Amino acid sequence: MNPSSPGYLTKQESISVTGVDDLLIRSLLDKHQFHDPLDEALNLGISSATWPLFGLLWPSGMRLAERMARRPVSGERILEIGCGLGLASLVAHRRGAQVTASDCHPLAHAFLDENTRLNGLVPMPYCHGLWGTAAAREDGLPVLTHAHDAPLSGLFDLIVGSDILYERDDAGTLAQFIGEHAALSSEIWVIDPNRGNRAAFHKHMAQLGFAMHEQVLDQAAQGGEDAYKGRMLTYTRELRGNT
User: Per the confidence metrics, is the pTM higher than 0.85?
Assistant: First the structure.
């Protein structure tokens, strides 16, 4: 356990992901950490209670990382949204995939850079990515956590995210965000720990032309690993005109 910037503590541990070598990951010590002296997170709608969530490893994130470990590496453009610590992105990046990580938390970029360094990797592309009610300001200007975090742009062949259906989204802001960055022919992966918001998301993705396949990922506790209940949601779209 080591002190980091004033106000929060971190830890460093070796994380085992099936199919690839272990990764050294720096994360927050626990869910009680908080440090937002300039109200950067608060201004993005990130409360003190939700502030530490980006900096913890979550079961759904582990399962997404395992999926990325099995994905054949090609020239496809990959985007992880709501990446948090970016474990799935780190797995893909180390395997040579063309991956960009994105999140809205003010510290996500710094933690990602530190974890790429810990594993002897070159820096990974990172962009500021935000959806939902906090994604727009009343004055119409874009919301950025730091000036040096470029806003997300471009189109991607594969967009992945874990535990991103955490709030009710009747307006479809997440699907709209994905639609803005998905290539005409593209695939979307979402690992969802049965949050209960899938139905609305399915509807909004269907409106964008995506067909959905759902796979149950329930697993009993074994070998010291906690039980897991969730689903792998795969959305695919094949449209002409993609370059």
Answer: yes
